[in-house]
Amino acid sequence: MRAAVFEGWKLTLCAAAPKWHSDTVSAILLPEGIDGAQVIARAFTRYNLALGAGLSKVAGKLFRIGHLGDLNELMLLGGIAGAEMAMLDVGVKVEPGSGVAAAQNYWRTHSPVRAANNLAVAKTGVAA
Known about the structure:
Elements: H1 2-8, E1 12-13, E2 25-29, H2 36-47, E3 52-53, E4 62-66, H3 73-89, H4 98-109, H5 113-124
Antiparallel strand pairs: 1-2, 2-4, 3-4
């Protein structure tokens, strides 16, 4: 997810320091003048994608995308694509396909933690 935000979209996370980055949700800050509620509404009404809103001091300044639970990389690519299309639709200046491409490049070159467990299950027939 962070590859899509930083490398693809050239945006930032609300959690500025890497020590605060989450493995379960990312709050993506939008450029000045873009209303996060518009991105969220467009994502839902046009692409059937549910994104979270910014709360309190960051209300309207960002959107949140969850990446936890029964979710794999291919499912998250769909969420990244939907968020990207919604951002483009409301005027965010991102390169079409850039977030998806950055996430794909990251996942193709980094082994997921799950892969080691899947290999162990394949060899032993027993889930860890």
